Amino acid sequence: MSVRVLVADDQELVRTGLAMILDAQPGIDVVATAADGLEAVRLAERLRPDVCLLDVRMPVLDGIAATRRLAGPGVAQPTAVVVITTFDLDEYVYGALRAGARGFLFKDAGPALLSQAVHAAARGDALIAPSVTTRLLNAFARHDPALPRRQPLEPLTDREEQVLRELAAGRTNTEIAADLFISLSTVKTHVGSLMTKLGVRNRVEAAIWAYETGRAGPSTKG
């Protein structure tokens, strides 16, 4: 079954180009496009796409505010959001991920990475542009040093700590399974348990938590 996608960007050429690229990918169906954040929210609430691809800088309602409306804390039925931008600015990524986005990419990411991000978001996973992942997650740990560090609802097991470090390094479930010599289903079980214990909604939030609490470190691949 195809992943239904809404694309929002205030530049018509970019919006049309992104829609054409995604529509050409296997298993993806662009069901709507929007020229501003408010239109995107209204269309998403009416059409219920699987994933919304939102530009950061849009008129009326920007991409971060739109993400918060669609996927933020307290949203009863959150929509998976991937945020895209031309600008490599940390504050955009902070805002997008805090607002509930499951992915963050640059507009020049290319068809393959765009497709991966959309499919990952639809699965409940997350994909952040590889060039910014580690830098941004490390920056999260320094961004609000005065904030109290949340503790897990239950202590993490040694294996869960290992999986968390791998996850924070941006590794996929398949890569984690290979690194730790465990099955893919076991990795999924550990990731699910981590999210429950940490009280987070997705892998991005789990990775942020790992950096904020000083748990993140080198993965087993170094």
Question: Which percent range describes the beta-strand content?
Answer: 5-15%
Backbone structural class: alpha/beta
Q: What is the CA-CA span between the terminal residues?
A: 37 Å
Oligomer: single chain
Percent in helix: 40-55%
Count of helical stretches:
10
Please trace the helix and strand order, writing H or E for each element.
Answer: EHEHEHEHEHEHHHHH
State the low-pLDDT regions, or none: 218-222
> What is the 3D shape?
globular
Read across the widest sheet, the strand sequence of neighbours is: 2-1-3-4-5-6
Kindly state the number of beta strands.
6
Mean pLDDT reading = 84
**Largest β-sheet summary:** 6 strands, parallel
What is the radius of gyration?
17 Å
InterPro entries: CheY-like_superfamily, NreC/VraR/RcsB-like_REC, Sig_transdc_resp-reg_C-effctor, Sig_transdc_resp-reg_receiver, Tscrpt_reg_LuxR_C, WalR-like
Domain HTH luxR-type: 149-214
Protein name: Response regulator
Keywords: DNA-binding, Phosphoprotein, Transcription, Transcription regulation
Note down, in words, how this protein is organized.
Residues 149-214 form the HTH luxR-type domain. It comes from Catellatospora aurea. The radius of gyration is 17 Å and the shape is globular. It is α/β, with parallel strands linked by helices. Helix 2 packs parallel to helix 3 (63-71), helix 6 crosses helix 10 and helix 7 crosses helix 10. It is built from ten helices and six strands, in the order E-H-E-H-E-H-E-H-E-H-E-H-H-H-H-H. It has a six-stranded parallel sheet with strand order 2-1-3-4-5-6, with helices on both faces. It has helices at residues 12-23, 37-47, 63-71, 90-99, 111-123, 133-143, 158-168, 173-180, 184-198, 203-212, and strands at residues 3-8, 28-34, 51-55, 80-85, 103-106, 127-128.
